[in-house]
């Protein structure tokens, strides 16, 4: 493993190159090699200074996250991080100028290594950050102690609590980077290091003092950050832990602060929050690996696209393409519908511009990528068409038959249907291997999930192309099977069933929404429906009724259909599950009418309404999700439990720090989940039926994650 690092003398400077593809993560071998090679450079008479650089596309993207799985106890972590801290101190004590040369990313432990160097130079497109909080931990290699000494507590607090990287120019202004290098990084870094050696400069970050003013300003910033985290970090521990560690550094000397950092890090790394976030980090990267689609499957370059249907979804999808720089035709039947769609798109971009996230010039350039049309002219030139017409089987089938005639035979034909059978469209098109589902989530230009629905005959090339395209569009593409509702909406039906039944049994709309937002969801089930539109679900139910089906077995609440009949579609009509100040307003108040309806429906079903605890609400809803998720998995509609977690985290904002519905079930314990299903069956009826996979896993003493769970 010695070749993970290289040592060369260039122009009188020792160059230590870390070469641990793909991201130069700090595995134990890399840590040890860095320590050894810095010592070698210090002793090497041929070297007057030392440069540390990364091979490939990046500096160091952080500690090797997989290593955290080996830290089973707090004590394991304390022992390991004491070693890491000592190692970085040894490096920092080098008696020759030590320069970190940064390109690509210096993240987490990577930035901490750079902080322990005497100086840092970077290319102008380099990014630096402390993203540990996104993994439920805090910087654990001195970052909470050294970073505030370089840039002040305020910026350090922001970086360590939001985890977002900053650009090299900002880091330079803040004092984290000493010089931006134009041209070849290594050449510039060597020149810089030699100049430092000539002046005899050695600057140890840990010895940089905090000024008295900085300490009081820093302590105030700690209090302000804690306050703002109440809004942004609901239910999470790590962001607060990062503030605690930075505060300790302001109140104590470096060594005492570093000990406190190690203790806080140790508490975090063994927490369920961190395990859940680490799980999602890897699950998100696993989704792109589909077992029967090899990495070298040919893919098509999507250079031009078309979207059919300029409604809310179609407009959002066209924006996603334009945002990725892909020219897109936007077709609708009449000009009025098109103009409405375009006006909405422009309005959305204007909001982005008003937030300072886009310039007027960028807005016009992006709008120019969207070409409105009422005909199929130009469709022969596109590489993909996304159909986003009304959710109606006959209309969609007719659209696919038409699309097959107006596009090249190799054009991908994607449907944005959220529920309907992709194979039916595939047959209608006459070229089923080209047909795939691209199920975007609303608002399509914002939400990161893309369900890639694999039909019976969808070609491997089309799936591989879809996965690559998802990345280009800035989405997380998850390949799912073609069942009703696919993965996201199929499971959502069970989540909603429980929400409706809990209301009829005695909970209120406000209680259910409050409990779920406290759990960590951005919005509860009723708030969500008022945003998405009660009419959308009602129309799907009408279609299902017409084919003799229901979405989730069990009693079907009549309240949503009653609201639909009353024209209460949610925010857009000024009333739904809540009352709103005006149509389109977000200002809501509870509506006693809903309680009255719940009383009436309960009476009809012979139920005596009762007080329902917050715990029961969480247990019922999450158990319904896990039980149906187990069925989805067993039937092969999702490849891995992790895929379901990614779908839920990105599609419906399931709290990331709980890892997704399947991971959460594992943390509750599958025996408990199964016992709950059985209890509910006894209490409520046979529609609560344990998923066979759930029963089998419990019998075998396994969880969804204690061994790889593959579909059968
Ligand atoms: C830390 O540093 C704690 C410290 O305070 C020290 C405490 C002692 N480890 O994302 P990609 C893999 S915590 C292991 O697809 P991109 C990844 O799984 C760490 N593996 O590429 C994937 O593997 P595969 C703080 C890692 O170009 C492959 O690399 N750092 C790590 O889209 C490519 O990844 C972070 O949180 C890692 N640290 O994005 C940064 N990083 O090919 C985490 C990546 O088998 N990383 N892999 O699927 C990132 O944010 C992105 O990977 C990055 C590149 C932006 C760097």
3D architecture notes:
The protein has 712 residues and is an alpha/beta fold. It has 28 helices and 19 strands. The strands form four sheets. An eight-stranded mixed β-sheet has the order 12-11-10-13-14-15-16-17, sandwiched between helices. It has a six-stranded mixed β-sheet with strand order 1-2-3-4-6-9, sandwiched between helices. Helix 24 packs across helix 27. The structure holds (S)-3-Hydroxyhexanoyl-CoA.
Q: What keywords describe this structure?
A:
8-stranded mixed sheet; alpha/beta; 50% helix; 19 strands; 712 residues; binds (S)-3-Hydroxyhexanoyl-CoA
Topology (SSEs and partners):
Blueprint: E1 5-10, E2 13-18, H1 28-43, E3 49-54, H2 74-92, E4 98-102, E5 105-107, H3 109-116, E6 119-123, E7 127-129, H4 143-151, H5 153-162, E8 166-167, H6 168-174, E9 179-181, H7 185-199, H8 212-232, H9 238-251, H10 254-269, H11 272-286, E10 305-308, H12 312-323, E11 328-331, H13 335-354, H14 360-368, E12 370-373, E13 384-387, H15 393-406, E14 412-415, H16 422-429, E15 435-440, E16 449-454, H17 460-472, E17 476-481, H18 488-505, H19 509-519, H20 525-532, H21 534-546, H22 559-565, E18 578-580, E19 588-590, H23 592-604, H24 614-634, H25 641-651, H26 661-668, H27 670-684, H28 692-699
Parallel strand pairs: 2-3, 3-4, 4-6, 5-7, 6-9, 10-11, 10-13, 11-12, 13-14, 14-15, 16-17
Antiparallel strand pairs: 1-2, 7-8, 15-16, 18-19
Helix pairs in contact: 1-2, 2-10, 3-4, 4-5, 5-8, 5-9, 8-9, 9-10, 11-25, 12-13, 15-16, 18-24, 21-22, 24-26, 24-27
Bound molecules: (S)-3-Hydroxyhexanoyl-CoA.
(S)-3-Hydroxyhexanoyl-CoA binds near residues 25, 105 and 143.
